Backbone:
């Protein structure tokens, strides 16, 4: 009886921890990878590492007592909670958009001041 209560709770906590690792790692990678000379290596390496950690964590959730699909669903709930928290708590990786040095293009369908026909 007691393990039936602890198993979903432990799965939710584990999902929150895995989500924190995944999205925290993504945030850290974006901050470090953009200024790196090997951006692609940063992002691919981080993606493989983060997915590996999360998949291993969910695999170990299957060893908890109870129905495995309910345990995985509880872990996914925790992962989703971490994702929602990450989008609200982590600051944006870049405080301002990068300048390309090119003039800004007008939005499609919006008239540009001074671009009309001469009357």
Residues:
């Amino acid at each position: 009886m007691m393990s039936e209560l602890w198993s979903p709770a432990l799965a939710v906590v584990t999902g929150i921890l895995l989500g924190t690792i995944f999205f925290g790692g993504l945030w850290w990678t974006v901050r470090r990878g953009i200024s790196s000379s090997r951006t692609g290596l940063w992002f691919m390496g981080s993606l493989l590492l983060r997915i590996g950690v999360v998949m291993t964590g969910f695999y170990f959730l299957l060893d908890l007592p109870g129905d495995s699909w309910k345990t995985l669903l509880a872990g996914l709930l925790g992962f989703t909670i971490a994702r929602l928290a990450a989008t609200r708590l982590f600051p944006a990786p870049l405080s301002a958009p990068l300048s390309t040095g090119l003039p800004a293009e007008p939005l499609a369908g919006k008239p540009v001041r001074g671009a009309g026909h001469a009357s």
